[in-house]
Specification:
The complex is a heterodimer of chains A (677) and B (318). With 677 residues, chain A is an alpha/beta fold. Helix content of chain A is 33%, strand content 22%. In chain A, the strands form four sheets. An eight-stranded mixed β-sheet of chain A has the order 6-7-8-3-9-10-12-11, with helices on both faces. Chain A has an eight-stranded mixed β-sheet with strand order 18-19-20-15-21-22-24-23, with helices on both faces. The two termini of chain A are 39 Å apart. The model of chain B has no long low-confidence stretch (mean pLDDT 82). The chains are: A alpha/beta (677), B mainly alpha (318). Chains A and B meet through α2, β6, α4 and β13 of A and α9, α10, α14 and β1 of B.
Amino acid sequence: MSTSITPTLELRGLEVAYTVRGIDRQVLRDVSFSIAPGEAYGLVGESGCGKSTAAFAAMRYLPRNGKITGGSILFEGKDIVDIGEEDVAQLRRSAISMVYQNPATALNPTIRIGKQIAEVFELDGASKSDALAMAQAALTKVQISDPAQVMRRYAHQLSGGMAQRVVIAMALASNPRLLVMDEPTTGLDATVEAEVLDLVRELRRDTGTAVLFISHNLGVIRNMCDRVGVLYAGALVEQGATADLFNNPSHPYTVGLLRCIPRGGLHKSTDRLDTIPGTPPALGTHFDGCVFAARCALADDKCRTELPQMVTISGAHVARCFHSDKASSMPRSVEQIEIQSTPTHHLANVGESLLDVSHLSKVFTQDGHRIRVINDVSLSLGVGETLGLVGESGSGKTTIAKLVLGLVVPEEGGVIKLDGKGLAKTLNRRDVQDVGAMQIVFQNPDQALNRRHSVTRIVSRAVERLRGFSAQSSIERAHELLLGMRVEATLHGARPVQLSGGLKQRVAIARAFAGAPQIVLCDEPTSALDVSVQAAILNLLVDLQKQDKTSFIFISHDLGVVRYISDRIAVLYLGRVVEFGASQRVFNGPFHPYTEALLSSVPNIDGSIRKRIPLTGVVPSPSNPPSGCVLNPRCPRKVGSGYESMCESEEPNLNEVEPGHFMRCHIPMAKLKQLQS
Amino acid sequence: MLRFIVKRVGLSILTLAIVSLIVFLMTSILPGDIAVQTLGRDATPEAFAIWNKEKGFDKPLVVQYSRWMGGVATGDLGISLQYEQPVAEILGPAAGKSAQLAIVALILIVPISILGGIAAAMNRGKKVDRMLTVGGLSAAVIPEFVWAVALILVFGVAIRIFPVSAFPDEENPNLISSVYHLLLPSIALLFVLFGYISRITRAGVIEALDSDYMRTAVLKGLSRKAAVFRHVLRNALLPTIAVIATQVPYLAGGLIAIERVFNYPGFGNILLDAVIARDFPLLQSAVFLTGVVIICFQLFADILFAVLNPRIRQRVTE
């Protein structure tokens, strides 16, 4: 980066504080970085470390209780910390735009899309009809299908990916010189995420806009950014060119973050995930020394008492650490968990068939249309095994979990067998033992735990109901379970609201294990958690499985996580199983064309360039599935395979293409292998 | 949308049928013998029998009910025992009077309360907000008839700027005089309903102010004022109006007491008289009519909600 060019954005020693209950709590500590014109700068770190605060400060949009207490924000060399409201609005109209998480709620639900985008042009002085024409052109630019039609829609009529395109179109409408993107693809499916990221990359190439890119997803950052900064507890702890920082992480926090991620090829059978011990500091904690000292394996007395300065690693790569040379060889933090053994009724051996579902279907009715959301799904799960369910949203993952649990009643013909015994189709007709045998852990523990009950009570009630223990022994068992899940005794009287996300999820897991379950269904159990907490939860699940031979059905949109924890994987598309087999098989190929596209859309954290196999078009509505193979209009391998007419006319069966590996595709294995090599 | 409306209307009719049955049964089991009250204690048993036969009270309840319902359908609500006049002729004008009062009251209450709510939301946590919220709730805990009496004492008796009766000049009826007479009772109702409606408005506006789309609007470069006008009010207020529609029953309840205090010949006054006089035909129809009004507003609110929020119309069923 040449110093002669004025950076588009420069933060100099920025300090931001939030006033909470009358006390100023510092959230950004002396943060300095700059973004050159046309450059993409990534900010990473776990939740609460100040990423979004930095982004919103750059937009001069802090919450009501937030204020800038020091430093400066320079936009093209001009300090914007003290400029007035009208100047800020002018800047937002003409030079800086923002795209953020959750595009669906970012759009006004009662105003048509076209009008919302046109508003930007009207602000700029365009007439109403001109503004509408320009809005449509803006939509065309973000490659949305049928822009004229999208103009007339309302926000709730758009899919997540389309809504994010609309938000991006709106952000780019003013030809901004700086684009701030705060978790722009979080919550989107991997395939949609890949498309949005491709779009951003293309637009950046065309417009030369500088980008401040914020994400908790290190893979996304690695693929999108030229330079990266790592934030911890509001302080920038490491910064450098993307490749340098990822290949030679030099701050213990960065090293820890990278080690937590279940990256390509890791599997529970051989590798244990690293965690970062301890928890992030509370908002506004005062530090004498290094902000990370309390959780750092390399910390010594100096770290705790003296504030480290940025040291140069190589070129522009800097780290705020006294021991940066030792960071990459930092001792691994492998948390050992000891669990009180659950008296178990698993007498079978690992791998023996436990759950068999066959011919499950489910039809919902919406506005008089029949929608077949699950279509003839058959799966099996062995004792002590994990079955991963993957697929885009709407593919039926969660509905399958609900069908198995009896929360949703399958159509005629569906059979669910546990230990060879047919289960009643609805939950309230199952006996206590069957109910206890299958439990679920949800994505959002906030909603799953009763806020009014103490942690002990949440678990002991489940023990009492499912195991028939007396009140006293239920409480004792609850304490055992909670300690096993690493929820310390001092927290057993707490209400869920007093716990962190990771602890809440541990309580939810303890509750699920209260009935000594044979199968636990995990529906995106770590999606709302930070990577270090995710690693700890995954380790915990693996330990529980090893000890009690518990089986899991694991649903996640994060393919790295699924790959790490699963023994077998079912890939779902439009309510159908399109591929089913051992984890290593499914991930190593030859792949079903849909699996191939899904896998190729995941941003690779190792930095290796992989050609993306795009799925064209949108997921068809299950109320009107395409004829023939349901994937055929989007299939990346149909054309040129020689099976086109068959794909379009006949739905393929789920065939056993090799022992234990099933695929729903007309194209033979050998041909797929050839196409994919 | 049409399906939704048809379904709602059907449900409303069913609700009305149930209401009519309850009203009928309740009035039939009211204590006190109406014949004794009309004919006096000393009347002969023969006289009672003749009277009951004449009024149809000797028939089984089922017959009485179906006769009443048949009457409702054809507009014949029977004869008031008290006034010896057709019920419809008594209720009609009284309902008109009450409607006048209700309209004046709503024209006063709705804008003032909504503006109060918006002011509170825009100044969230500041003095204006606290004053409006605390003031509104304090006023609401005092019943409307107490307010009515207090207002009469202050503005009708002590300062004499408002008439003590809500009943306008019979000789010289004109709009301004009528409205002027109705102001004081409307203010009494305002005191009671302001806290409630402004609170709902405040919540709606705050939700919209905190929404992601408001943030989008501001980050697009709209000034705060423009963003509030274009993006907040529309989203916050229309649902609020729908909520107000569901609160009409409270207004109806308040009207009865207010009319009594201001000696206003409206529906509430008639209703109260009918209870005291055990005037079954009048009472049944009056209560039933109240039910009709409330259910109509509820239906209106439901449809309004659906129009505002297209997502309500789509329901996924198993």
